[in-house]
Amino acid sequence: EAGVAQSPRYKIIEKRQSVAFWCNPISGHATLYWYQQILGQGPKLLIQFQNNGVVDDSQLPKDRFSAERLKGVDSTLKIQPAKLEDSAVYLCASSLVKGWGAGGTEAFFGQGTRLTVV
Amino acid sequence: GIQVEQSPPDLILQEGANSTLRCNFSDSVNNLQWFHQNPWGQLINLFYIPSGTKQNGRLSATTVATERYSLLYISSSQTTDSGVYFCAVGGKRDFGNEKLTFGTGTRLTIIP
């Protein structure tokens, strides 16, 4: 079974430029997450989709970050304009969905995109 | 939201030693996962363990949900075990919204 695919693996941009990351979840996984991991810290959730709807984007800096999941499969995360503090690894994850209130399911992560803003 | 604390933050051991990593969480959970982050940054799933005990080779994990903690045991450590270990939990209050909240990790270094 193929895992979560992300691209690109690395990206270096100048501040104020824009950048986009792509994620293809595991086939059949309705839930898709984008996490940001700053060096030395644990991953932090940016946005969670279930199918093509947003479940949680409370920690997404909406003035510069946007994400979409058209057709409920692939997703893109965009930063425009980038700041120095956006330098981080951006991780995509996916999981199955059980029935409401039926408990959690195991999440699987992609290899991540390492972004450096200079 | 739910809080996750991991201890110790750093652990340095000789090859062959055993280790115990701890994860404390502040609320009831539907989901608890242990990950190993490799040097290239990828999160490798070790255990999905919201309760009970599981073993996989030299690794085992126990979650005592009623007391809000989980332990990861690594026996006969090898240099390839080096890296950062994360505990991540999904709170029961997040009905149908099982996001994972991560701890700050334990950095394990195994010396040959």
Could you characterize what this model shows?
- The complex is a heterodimer of chains A (118) and B (112).
- With 118 residues, chain A is an all-beta fold.
- Chain A is 0% helix and 47% strand.
- Chain A is built from no helices and eleven strands.
- In chain A, the strands form two sheets. In chain A, strands 2, 4, 5, 6, 9, 10 and 11 form a seven-stranded mixed beta sheet that branches. Chain A has a four-stranded antiparallel beta sheet with strand order 1-3-8-7, with no helix packed on it.
- Chain A is globular, with a radius of gyration of 14 Å.
- Chain B is built from no helices and eleven strands.
- Chain B starts with a strand and ends with a strand.
Concise overview:
Chain A is an all-beta fold and 118 residues long. Chain A has no helices and eleven strands. Helices cover 0% and strands 47% of the residues of chain A.
Sheet of most strands of chain B: 6 strands, mixed
Estimate what percentage of residues of chain B fall within beta strands: over 45%
Structural class of chain B: mainly beta
Q: H/E series of chain B, N to C? A: EEEEEEEEEEE
Give the N-to-C terminal Cα separation of chain B. Answer: 40 Å
Radius of gyration of chain A: 14 Å
Largest protein interface, residues of each chain: A-B, 29 and 27 residues
Counting DSSP E segments of at least 2 residues, the number of strands of chain B comes to 11
Roughly what is the average pLDDT of chain A, rounded to an integer? 92
Order of helices and strands of chain A: EEEEEEEEEEE
Give the biggest sheet of chain A: 7 strands, mixed
Q: How far is it from the N-terminal to the C-terminal residue of chain A, by CA? A: 37 Å
Q: What is the assembly state of the chains in this entry?
A: heterodimer
Average pLDDT number of chain B? 94
Q: Count the strands of chain A?
A: 11
